[in-house]
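Hypothesis: this fold can be encoded by more than one sequence.
Test: take the structure tokens below, design a sequence, compare later.
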């Protein structure tokens, strides 16, 4: 197996681990959760970058702009939708719907880059829509607050992630993956903190339980730190289609981890919905 494929699989594993941490620490609320996880991920990457490379940054203005656009879509807008989804539905239901974003990424590439859409895309789309419908129609597991809201924001997050990948892939043409993962965070984080502070006060973000900072921080380091870096490397080595195809194993890994660590119930609707969703992605990719 080549390095690019290994990086994509590593990203999927990191994202699955992160989802469990986020679910455990989501009590802080959606926006605070995004702020906390992003801050710790950025701090971790910054320290690691200084240790490995020192204060030697090298990127173009165009690359910086596209990476921050991708960061805004993925980390802030997508992140808020992600956390809101986890507040309302189980990891086992949310992650498979979120991971329709590889399909959306390909569709956006076809529209924006004028790539030809093959018949297998149509077949895969049908499978994915079926999977999302099954997941959204499944019975409430008992611990889920609002299935319709959770499914809706999962779909929204998938769209935001897809747009983010298109922007990020453009930025990666001018900036290496390590720097890309780091410089895509500060501006979106500052904008979100400013907006949150204006509404709730500048010190409110420091008033949550210690457990929330630990869990969300670890999730941020795993998912946004290691996961983003591994995925960015895979994008540069094997391209968006193959990288996202391999990352589609994330729903399976997340469901298994949720079953073991969060004691979530895996019912028939979740199994069938997950299978149809991932099968659709694999047909397309």
């Amino acid at each position: 197996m080549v390095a690019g494929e290994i990086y994509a699989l590593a990203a999927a594993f990191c994202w699955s681990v992160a989802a469990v941490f986020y679910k455990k620490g989501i009590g802080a609320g959606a926006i605070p959760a995004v702020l906390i996880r992003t801050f710790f991920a950025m701090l971790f990457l910054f320290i690691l970058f200084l240790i490995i490379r020192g204060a030697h940054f090298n990127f173009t203005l165009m690359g910086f702009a596209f990476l921050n656009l991708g960061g805004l879509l993925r980390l802030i807008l997508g992140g808020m939708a992600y956390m809101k989804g986890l507040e309302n539905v189980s990891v086992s239901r949310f992650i498979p719907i979120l991971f329709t974003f590889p399909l959306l990424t390909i569709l956006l590439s076809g529209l924006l880059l004028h790539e030809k859409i093959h018949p297998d895309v149509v077949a895969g789309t049908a499978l994915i829509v079926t999977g999302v419908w099954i997941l959204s129609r499944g019975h409430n597991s008992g611990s889920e607050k609002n299935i319709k809201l959770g499914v809706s924001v999962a779909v929204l997050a998938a769209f935001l992630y897809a747009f983010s990948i298109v922007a990020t892939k453009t930025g990666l043409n001018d900036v290496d993956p390590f720097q890309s993962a780091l410089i895509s965070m500060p501006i979106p984080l500052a904008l979100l903190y400013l907006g949150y502070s204006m509404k709730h006060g500048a010190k409110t973000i420091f008033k949550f339980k210690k457990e929330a900072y630990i869990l969300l921080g670890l999730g941020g380091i795993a998912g946004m730190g290691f996961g983003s870096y591994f995925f960015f490397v895979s994008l540069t080595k094997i391209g968006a289609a193959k990288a996202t195809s391999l990352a589609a194993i994330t729903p399976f890994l997340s469901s298994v981890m949720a079953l073991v660590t969060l004691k979530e119930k895996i019912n028939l609707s979740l199994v069938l919905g997950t299978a149809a969703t991932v099968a659709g992605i694999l047909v397309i990719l």
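The first helix runs from residue 3 to 25. The chain is about 80% helix and 0% strand.
Hypothesis status: open.
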